[in-house]
Amino acid sequence: MEENNKKPTWLSELQQKSWEPEVLLSGIVLYGMFKTPGLLDDFLYYYKINFSANSNDIDNFVGMMKVAVYWLTGGLIAHLISRGIWVGMVGLSFTFPNGIVLDKVKLTDKYRTYLSNIPTTEKIILNLESFSSTLFSISFMMFMMMLGAYFYILVTIIVPVLTIVYLFNELFDNDTFGYFLAGYLITVLAFGFIGFIDFVTLGFFKRFKLISRIYWPIYRIVGTLTLARFYRPIYYTLVSNIRKWKIALMLTAFVVISFTWVGGISNSTYPGESLSRISLWSDSQNTGSYTGYYDDQIDDIKSINASIQSDIIRGNTVRLFLVLRADREDSIKAYCNLDSLFQIEGLGQSQARLQCLKTFHSVSIDDSVFADLPFKFHFKSKARQRGLLTYIDISYLESGLHHLEVKMPASMYRNNRIAKIPFYREETYIPYFVPDPSTPPKSDSESYLKLKPILPK
Predict the structure, then answer these.
(1) Do residue 140 and residue 96 come from a single domain?
(2) Among 297, 320, 341, 420, which has the minimal tally of Cβ within 10 Å of its Cβ?
(3) What is the pTM of this model?
(4) Does 306 lie in the same domain as 242?
(5) Is residue 373 within 8 Å of residue 358, measured between CB atoms?
(6) Tell me, what's the pLDDT at 439?
(7) Has residue 274 been placed in a domain?
């Protein structure tokens, strides 16, 4: 029996050298984590363009994944710093095996007594070893807890509700059906909240015999749907070896910070907006100038509605690009009756689609509405957008600030403005030289003779 429970030799050796795979994994994972937020933004942007701009669920998903990545990235960076200090202390202990020798330092008794309480180098190394390994495990535990929280919401709320809406949309006017759906959502949220309370309180409902029996099915369901099997061993190892109030405080802070962070990321337009303390700033269409509206400013922020070449127009032409989105296509087809356009003799399908899109969108600058702009289908490779491209003559505009507006039919949309793009028209003058008629023209030979002394041989 003792032989079966004996720890394998390879495991003992690996535990003693655990810092090697820890550092290697931290470096590899960090490289991927630094790229992940950008990939998540690209995914969200692609979803809004090609599927639906009303993407609250996807916004929350991307927000939670970003926060999970940030927790893991921060934890691994702290782990590498801790390991760096640990390596330094190991090297220091080899170079100076005697550690701190107070007899060689001339200090008063007060300072000698205080410094004598500093742990030995070996003890500091052991504490750093324990701290680094624990921090490495906690980082992955927090990452998996964020994934598990969203997976629970996805499986119990998002997928069932979307399925019900798709299959039984006609029943929504039925009060009984509404009560059933509300009861289901309340039950699911209640189960999740009970599991959350037990998790933060380190197993409060498992301590009482009668309550634990009632809680058992909820524990199994919530644990399965939150992917608890991936982080439960780390969780209970920490709970059983570290003071409980420290773990409870850490988990509470983690939950509060995480969900506050997710809300800030999901509702922010610009990076870092949720952390800013500037309260007077606003980015409304009436008072703001959105960066994504201008092609020469496009970097990470892109408009999903429209854009022009720049906020300062120095020529006589505005290049307007309208982004086509999947969530508007049904409205566009219904507005122009696209099927009837397909039946017009001599009008190809591409021309019919283009004509339909032209009638749906209304473009104006200030108070001037343009009746028939020459739209063409266009793919903007830098922003990876499909849309319509047109050119607007603004030679009649005076120098100064103007606003270009793109609207949808007011009969179909209460808020029918797609974009309001401010731009400044700057008149340009091409300077040219008018020769003085009284001055005789210089010959080529005279010009050459003047330049000859400075020309290279």
Answers:
(1) yes
(2) 297
(3) 0.69
(4) no
(5) yes
(6) 57
(7) no
Residue 350 CA to residue 331 CA, distance in Å, equals: 18
Is residue 393 helix, strand or coil? Answer: strand
Angle, helices 175-200 vs 244-267, to 10°: value is 140
User: Do residues 418 and 408 make contact, with C-beta atoms less than 8 angstroms apart?
Assistant: yes
Residues 238 and 296 in one domain: no
| Amino acid 444: pLDDT | 52
83: which residues sit within 8 A by CB, 6+ positions away? Answer: 19, 22, 23, 26, 132
* Nearest partner of 377 among 322, 325, 318, judged by Cα: 322
d(CA 427, CA 402) in angstroms, rounded, equals: 13
Residue with tokens 């004598």: 116
Q: Is the pLDDT of residue 1 over 50?
A: no
User: 356's torsion region: left (phi>0), alpha (psi -120 to 50) or beta?
Assistant: alpha
Mean pLDDT for 331-336 is 85
User: Is residue 250 situated within a structural domain?
Assistant: yes
Instruction: Please tell me the distance from the alpha carbon of residue 351 to that of residue 345, in angstroms, as a whole number.
Output: 12
Q: Which residue has the tokens 């919530």?
A: 222
Q: What is the domain extent for residue 390? A: 291-425
Q: What is the mean pLDDT of residues 331-354?
A: 81
Give the model confidence (pLDDT) of 171-192 as tens digits: 555 666 677 778 888 888 899 8
Instruction: Name the domain count of the chain.
Output: 2
At 400, is the secondary structure helix, strand, or coil?
strand
